[in-house]
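QA checklist item 7 of 12: single-chain prediction sanity check.
[x] sequence parsed
[x] length recorded as 313
[x] structure emitted
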Amino acid sequence: MAGTRKGTYRIRNWSKYNESLVQRGSVTFWFSEDAISQWHHANARPRRGHPFVFSDTAVECLLVLRELFQLPYRQTEGLGRSLVQLMEIELEIPDYTSLAKRAAKLGISLDVRRHTGSIDVVVDSTGLKVFGEGEWKMRKHGKSKHRTWRKLHLAVNPETQEIEAETLTENSSDDASQVDPLLGQVPGRTDRFYGDGAYDKWKVYETLEERGTRAIIPPQRNAKIKRHGNSRSRPLSRDVAIRDIRRRGRRQWKESVGYHRRSLSETAMHRMKCCFGDHLKNRLLPNQKAESRIRCKILNKFTRLGLPQFEWI
């Protein structure tokens, strides 16, 4: 019996996608004229202590360069000094201690494109290492008590593949606890929520019910009906999914509700780790949150520059 031959994909817009990859490394794209014009703090509101010299835009611009080129704080300061010298601009660069202190309190926007109407979101989480042994030493000598990581939770728009919301928590936080904080960051209304079995919790369904969002979450295999058919109340969405799975099977249920779109969140995680690695450079949680948020903002910029469009061969 002859075996089936696997097909392959080809990038249709290679020329445009290639140019977007080149532009990702353009320093002038990130160190823009708009950032330079807003470099110094306006001192609009008085504050205790010495007033800020540099604006949030200046600090964020240097932090973006730090994440883009995977630099420590000191080398980031040196890169900034070199850039203003080469561009022949009279501009002061904040020192590395100021960057670290300001990063912990910086409010960073994900810079998501505006959209009208409701959107769908696919949600998932992944682990980012903070410190500890590498994989080889862990396999050779076992796990160390000093090894720890953080959990990055993302809500991705499947239509644009942009990250609409993100949170960074300690590794003890469960995925279901971050549904409300994630949806609270999404502007406007969410129509459908795609998540894996980790979000099969009643608190998640209650949150989605309050927001008028349809849950596309596979129930556990031993799930039981909570509100039976003879009840006068409206059937619960989880009970509807359980009945549908019993009648048609789990695989056909996933195909009918479009559950495969959830894989786009895993694609975003993969892109994140390919571009920035699976480690966090900072050691304090507030700085780690700023670091992960800046990475998400850069990834959204990458998405708008251009993504590959595949065709089946």
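[x] summary fact logged: The chain has two domains: 14-107, 119-267.
[ ] second reviewer sign-off
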